[in-house]
TrEMBL record:
Highest taxon above the source species: Eukaryota
Signal sequence extent: none
Transmembrane residue ranges: none
GO molecular function, one term: hydrolase activity, acting on acid halide bonds, in C-halide compounds
The name this protein goes by in its record: Haloacid dehalogenase
InterPro entries, alphabetized: 2-HAD, HAD-like_sf, HAD-SF_hydro_IA, HAD_sf, PGP-like_dom2, S-2-haloacid_dehalogenase
Record keywords, A-Z: Hydrolase
Family: Belongs to the HAD-like hydrolase superfamily. S-2-haloalkanoic acid dehalogenase family.
Length: 250
């Protein structure tokens, strides 16, 4: 960790979590879904990790464009479907190979995700002393499906659909805090996305960055360490959220 959490997180009563990428390994989940179908020519198995990464990047690009334009965030399943169609078309994968039914199953695969190895135990331990809630872009149904499939023990789920605002709009953080009755300094935002934490920090929330292997590939980790209150390694062979929980609950 970059700083002592017992000091930096003094007064915190709730940990507010991003979901996909932060608590769940979407990449492994989506790869498994893709490999459950006959891999369409001209693609081969070695192309699938890059396709999954491009799919995720395309989702973020669409959401950020919508946010910058001041538009309401589009339905996440609709975004995933459109981005997938675009990526497959660019790669020469036609509907007669991966038809609408297959593509719909792949879109629904985003609702069924594996937790990172440290997520369940880390969140459960934090829950013994703090409120643990989700605040993430997407629909409430998406969050329900992910939490049920991953067995993550959250107290409450706040979606952008429910709050009618999209991260990084400061309104979404404020609305969530109002609903749990806390001031910004009484809550810590936990995410594997620097943009999310930068927005939360501007509001006055504490920030915990967890470095996941699938997230923020273009960010400078050394820079992020200096921007957040706590920096946690959440990559292979690290304790991730469990390390945070041990420190603040000891």
């Amino acid at each position: 960790m970059a700083l002592s959490p017992m000091h930096v997180l003094e007064g915190v009563q709730a940990f507010v979590f991003d979901l996909m990428g932060t608590c769940t390994d979407w990449h492994s989940s989506i790869l498994a879904a893709m490999r459950s179908h006959l891999i369409p020519p001209p693609l081969n198995d070695s192309d699938l990790p890059a396709l999954a990464a491009a799919w995720r990047a395309g989702f973020f690009e669409t959401i950020f464009v919508s946010f910058a334009a001041g538009d309401q965030a589009p339905d996440i399943d609709t975004v995933h479907a459109k981005v997938l169609d675009k990526l497959l078309n660019e790669r020469g994968v036609t509907l007669d190979v991966w038809d609408e039914e297959v593509r719909e199953r792949l879109v629904k695969a985003w609702h069924l995700q594996l937790p990172w190895p440290d997520s369940i135990e880390g969140i459960q331990k934090l829950k013994e002393r703090y409120m643990v809630v989700v605040l993430a872009n997407g629909t409430t149904r998406l969050q329900l499906d992910i939490v049920r499939s991953s067995r993550l023990p959250f107290d409450m789920l706040f979606s952008s659909q429910l709050l009618q605002a999209t991260k990084p709009d400061p309104e979404i953080y404020s609305k969530a805090l109002d609903l749990i009755g806390l001031h910004p300094e009484q809550a810590a935002m936990v995410a594997a996305h620097a943009y999310d934490l930068r927005a939360a920090a501007k509001l006055g929330m504490k920030t915990v960055y967890i470095h996941r292997p699938t997230e923020d590939p273009d960010e400078d980790m050394a820079l992020i360490r200096n921007q957040v209150d706590i920096f946690i390694e959440g990559t292979k062979c690290s304790d991730g959220l469990l390390e945070l929980a041990r420190h603040v609950c000891s």
